[in-house]
Task: structure prediction
Amino acid sequence: MSRGPALAVVGATGAVGEVMLRILSQHADVWGEIRLVASPRSAGRKLAVRGEECEVVALADEAFDGIDVALFLVPGEVSARWAPVAAARGAVVVDSSPAFRADPEVPLVVPEVNPHAVRLRPRGIVASPHDTTLTLAPVIGALHAGFGLRELVVASYQAASGAGRDAARALREQISLVADSDLGTGPGDVRRAVGEDGLGPFSGPLALNVVPWTGELLGDGWSSEELGLREETRKVLGLPGLRVAATCVRVPVLISHSLAVHARFEGEVTVDRAHEILATSPGVVLYDQPEVGDFPTPADVVGTDPVWVGRVRRAPDDPTALELFVCGDNLRKGAALNSAQIAEMVAAELAASAGPSPLPAEPSSAPSSGG
Amino acid sequence: MSRGPALAVVGATGAVGEVMLRILSQHADVWGEIRLVASPRSAGRKLAVRGEECEVVALADEAFDGIDVALFLVPGEVSARWAPVAAARGAVVVDSSPAFRADPEVPLVVPEVNPHAVRLRPRGIVASPHDTTLTLAPVIGALHAGFGLRELVVASYQAASGAGRDAARALREQISLVADSDLGTGPGDVRRAVGEDGLGPFSGPLALNVVPWTGELLGDGWSSEELGLREETRKVLGLPGLRVAATCVRVPVLISHSLAVHARFEGEVTVDRAHEILATSPGVVLYDQPEVGDFPTPADVVGTDPVWVGRVRRAPDDPTALELFVCGDNLRKGAALNSAQIAEMVAAELAASAGPSPLPAEPSSAPSSGG
Result:
């Protein structure tokens, strides 16, 4: 490990993988080898990372030989099958899928909120939360540290890309269909313009519409993303009894999730103190001057790393509650970035335990290409 | 008044006026003369109502001569100027503007919730709430009657047409612009595709975006629509101390507002009882079978009269609270329909006080044309 730990990126050819390779090329380079791993049908493709072409290798046991940290950017069932394989071969797994988020032996980490949890990983696996939780966590974690959180009521405005690349493509096609159609104002006119074939993965048309459903149906009418936001927020904040009620809604936005948040705290709060806290919190940008039109919108924050917060108000009838509007790029902080941050924390930990000065200040040689 | 009271429709040529003329043509005909009134520049235009062409007359004192009920579908400053004129000439004014909603001597009426309030009108004026309040009121009024309401947290998904006809047109143009552009995924790419000239009345691009702002800026970072929803809901429900915290957000939908609602009640609630209440409430359609994809969306409810409610769940950590998703056509129940319902209640009251049988079961002659 003379040039930093070896990293495997599993799922390098997917939507989040693509963002991850950009992030790895932009961040300070702490890695030795970076090996790109994907399904066998993508093996042999070449992708650029750190300015070098890198050949994709097929997901298999030996793909993890010599790997120190394995970033999993794949669906839950793939992580469930392969993350334990990577861990058994000695890699620390950073998993972005839902597979291990609820596992009590797997820490769920947002580096701005609970960085120390990353070291307690009895299974050798660290999980990264769902994109909606990640949009909320840096803001609400900072306010919890300042005020003590008691309750959250959240309504989401989730982008199509949160449901995958095909979902974002379906929205773009729907936008073209409704733009070209002579829409009426009757029930179902948008649905007819989009057509049943054009719905994509959504349960209704998304162009010129909103769909109050994301995820799978769990019991009592709840969606998996609504209850997931509750469970994950509780775990990241270390508040197992926190009251959380969420309504998750898909909106016709390509990238970046937004959340309207009602947060109740232990005692009285002020907007001035909330502004002070948010203005100095890592990973958070306070953008809150409605008198000049400054508040975050998804189209304005897309492509940026932090989560953005504005519309900070004290509830008019409850001096212990704040209202907030939060936006974040669901493919960056909401997925690739948080996993990259966790992996970089693990890299620093491995480097520190490997010797006194394992990482050169300047890379002394060109990065190797994997494969 | 042998053939029913005479009605003036002030603002007949506007977006809400257009919907009002359709409603008057569809509803049971309780009116004698219907006189269409608009600004002097629209005088002389002919519009169809009850199957007859009707000439528009200019707004002036004498436009209210012989009028029993005057429906005002105009901006607040026009209502503030002319509603007292109509009332002084003996008409009962039904005003859809914000001008009188907060006036303690003007009742604010949602016929499904507080019908009796219409009779207490010391100024001769009855006000109809804002479209967002009207989307919420039939649902929350019914649940309040059943459970006793304590607190509301509301996040809105408001359609462009709530900001007027030009706003809806601006959204359609923005949809065409983004459909034709080769959008990137960087900050401001949507804003550049739309252009500063294409923003219309919105403070940011609305196509492929959401804008967490509707209305004017009031103090402490609140928008007029957020505080208006609080004040109006309190007045309609007769609960001056009700806790209401709202975040109002514009979404790229042409017609129909949606609301994610967290409602806390006096005691324990159940979804079964809430379903019973909502299934039997006037003006409300319960549409809540997420297991087969049945929940309301704005594109599916547009053009219909009732408000639709689904996603009814009990808060997972609070047995006294319910989560709901409500959709309603902001140009029908949200504007024209509610005012028409109030006017029809006044018509019935006037008819009852005029004699034993003033309204023929079948109109015995063709309606007169105004002007």
About this structure: Chain A touches chain B through 77 residues (CB under 8 Å). Chain A has nine helices and 14 strands. The two ends of chain A are 18 Å apart (CA to CA).
